[in-house]
Write a structure and sequence with these properties.
Oligomer: single chain
Number of domains: 1
Order of helices and strands: HHHH
Mean pLDDT: 89
Number of strands: 0
Number of helices: 4
Low-confidence stretches: none
């Protein structure tokens, strides 16, 4: 990503095939991000289920569960996931654009 960022900042031309290659690489690296999100979401759901099992209303359980995990980190990871997915989508789209 740093190489691509430097090319964009330096206003260097980037070929369609390079965009496609970057999308492939970013997609391959996305697995770790997905796993971190899944882990935090699973923790959140387990805590909610435990609290609901103790006869707590689900809305209260949801709020308390968020306070028992690093909810800010979960939100940051989801935001990062959206940016990565957006990059991949745009890189694919960019690779299809014919330049004259």
């Amino acid at each position: 990503m740093k190489i691509l960022e430097d090319k964009v900042i330096g206003n260097f031309p980037i070929s369609a095939s390079y965009y496609c290659e970057m999308a492939l690489r970013v997609n391959a690296l996305k697995g770790e991000l997905d796993n971190e999100i899944a882990l935090l979401e699973a923790q959140l759901m387990n805590i909610e289920a435990e609290l609901v099992g103790q006869d707590m209303p689900s809305s209260k359980a949801k709020t308390l569960a968020r306070s028992k995990i690093d909810y800010k980190k979960l939100l940051e990871l989801k935001s990062k996931e959206k940016r990565v997915e957006q990059f991949i989508m745009l890189a694919k789209k960019r690779a299809t654009i014919n330049e004259y």
